Amino acid sequence: MTIDADVFQQLLQMVSRFVRERLIPLEAEVARSDRVPEEIKQEMRDLGLFGLSIPAEYGGSGLNMEEEVQVAFALGHTSPAFRSVFGTNNGIGAQGIVMDGTEEQKNYYLPRLATGEIISSFALTEPEAGSDAASLRTSARKDDDTYVLNGTKRFITNAPYADIFTLFARTESSERPGGVVTAFLVEAKTPGLSLGKIDKKMGQAGSHTCDVIFDECRVPASAVLGGKPGQGFKTAMKVLDRGRLHISAFCVGVAERLIQDSLAYAMQRKQFGQPIIEFQLIQAMLADSRAEAYAAKCMVLETARAKDRDANVSTDTACCKMFASEMVGRVADRAVQIHGGAGYMEEYGIERAYRDVRLFRIYEGTTQINQILIARNMVKEAAAAA
Length: 386
Ligand code: COS
Known about the structure:
Elements: H1 5-23, H2 27-33, H3 38-46, H4 65-75, H5 80-90, H6 95-100, H7 103-115, E1 120-123, E2 139-143, E3 146-157, E4 164-171, E5 180-187, E6 193-195, E7 209-220, H8 232-268, E8 270-271, E9 274-275, H9 280-308, H10 314-339, H11 341-344, H12 350-356, H13 367-385
Parallel strand pairs: 1-4
Antiparallel strand pairs: 2-3, 3-7, 4-5, 6-7, 8-9
The structure holds coenzyme a persulfide (COS).
């Protein structure tokens, strides 16, 4: 079930207004203080932003993918740190439960995730398992009707604030000697779970990651996501498919904002006796950025609509993530160039965006992993058609 078209338009306008009036004015302060003010987090809860993609029967807005990407376009017009506050509750931290959770798990966690009462986090990456996610080593040893978790997860977004982790660990299997990947829902307060220090990053100040360490951390067997061991890797891949589309949409929003700021600057900045927008080399940079952002937007919308029709969009999602994240990198680079010296200075905020967008080509699947996915699926499709 999705929401009424008029209600959705109101929601979209409300998000755009919130971004414009409340978040954009705070960007520099958040970058300086490295924190999103508590009152802003509360406003996000009041506006229902934590539950946009959680189904309505569990207290969320139940946006479909096409609606979700439109909201992400709007959110991209401000610093990524703001989206990050509620990003994991809508995305990778909660979608495992939405997709594969038991009814009991959905009823227990989703309503509180939707209101922002609790925060969720996605714990897949490890020191030795980044792109090669399937080689993860965190173990879950069965002991009667409990599992004992041991291992370390790395660079986990929102871990410092998380109340619950969707954790991926290896369980024993009679069929596979190396074990299978199983997803668990682990509460942050469980004894044996501890956090590392907050990572210092290149950008996205105000959004935080850290290690999550499991040392003989015991959880009940009922913590297995969906109640079935061995399904974890598929859950992770499905969650990432969806997450990659969301990130692609966010990249489009960031690019639109950078283009808007660059155009405004070029129209008022004078050199050689005229606004620099009069120079064709400046125009070319803006035109390239505009065309590329538009291409990414069309790809994202088309793929989101296909996903809503339940089509297999793994390849197209990888195309979107690869193209949109690379695109916003080029747009940010041109934005610095158009702003010249001002683009390099902190007070204009363009250098901040340049650093912020660098992450999009890395997390939730690097450009190279997406290239491999696309090519691999092309070969599979060709073989199937032969
Ligand atoms: N949806 C559902 N199931 C999927 C899937 C998807 N999109 N992709 C793969 N699977 C299933 C496969 O069908 C396969 O199932 P069977 O074992 O039943 O055949 C299983 O998962 C293993 O798939 P595959 O053989 O493709 O796994 P690989 O180890 O070769 O790795 C990549 C696949 C490299 C694509 C994967 O490890 C990956 O996405 N890595 C990047 C991880 C990442 O994004 N990390 C960022 C951290 S989160 S911020």
